[in-house]
Amino acid sequence: MAEKSGLIRGLELLYNGRSRRAALFRYGLIAFDFFTIGFFLVTTPMDPTKEIYAADIVIGIFILADFLARLAIAPDKLRMLRQIYTIADLLVIASLLLAPLLAENLAFLRVLRALRLLHSYHVLRDLRRETPLFRRHEDVIVSAVNLGVFIFVVTALVYVLEVDRNPKIGNYVDALYFTVATLTTTGFGDIVMQDTGGRVLAVLIMVVGVALFLRLAQTVFRPQKVRHTCPDCGLNRHDPDAVHCKHCGRTLKIETEGED
């Protein structure tokens, strides 16, 4: 029990500590998350090879180890297990470790790996804690991540639902092309949904996707706000040069980096 407690304390220091070693460890995790997301986006539409299978297993083991470590140090394990990025990671782990055991790399297992994008919200939390640059541009980055997650998860749905029904959608790239064309309301017409389920999905893409596009554009072009909680009224977004809270008039002391 003492050895186990020592291991858990060591994991807590790595995942939550303030030492240089802990910071480097967390930066390594962030780099690994970006690598896995990129790897899945590149290899999902490809025909599987022995090299891809081997990489799948190695990545799956690393994600499983990270998941077990986070679970071991989580103060509320049930709450962690209910979080969406945790469920997504479990599905991704299953798709990575089970696919090589099957005679065929089933489409739905391969496409599940796009759910790794949902883990990006966990990465954003780590970046908020570790990186001042991220905190200054958080709204833009989060909006872009929301849009990216939506595009690639919906592309996965289009691929799974239509690859055997729609002759125009023969691979993941076709599904991505249709998703982006529908999302931007361009509608070239060379790929159209031919069944009721596909048309409902297209409506969902247009309604939700256009709203995300507008949100991203608004975040990029509107004047940026800084996060600073007013001690009186609790307003936590202010102009960068604000001296008083616009809501209650309280004098603010917003930290700045000064003029260049």
Structural summary, described in words:
- The protein is built from 11 helices and 2 strands; from the N terminus they run αααααααααααββ.
- It has helices at residues 2-16, 20-43, 50-73, 77-82, 84-98, 107-111, 120-130, 132-136, 138-162, 172-183, 196-221; strands at residues 226-227, 237-238.
- It has a two-stranded antiparallel ribbon.
- Helix 3 packs antiparallel against helix 5 (84-98), helix 9 (138-162) packs across helix 10 and helix 9 runs antiparallel to helix 11 (196-221).
Brief rundown of the structure:
With 260 residues, the protein is an all-alpha fold. It has helices spanning 2-16, 20-43, 50-73, 77-82, 84-98, 107-111, 120-130, 132-136, 138-162, 172-183, 196-221, and strands spanning 226-227, 237-238. The longest helix has 26 residues, at 196-221.
Strand numbers in spatial order across the main sheet: 1-2
Average pLDDT, rounded to a whole number, is: 78
Largest sheet, strands/sense/barrel: 2 strands, antiparallel
How many strand units?
2
Q: What is the C-alpha radius of gyration, as a whole number of Å?
A: 22 Å
Global morphology: flat
| Helix amount | 55-70%
Number of helices: 11
Q: What is the first-to-last residue Cα distance?
A: 55 Å
Low-confidence stretches: none
Written as H for each helix and E for each strand, in order along the chain, the element string is HHHHHHHHHHHEE
- Helix- and strand-based class? mainly alpha
- Looking at the chains present, what oligomeric state does this protein adopt? single chain
Beta-strand residue fraction = under 5%
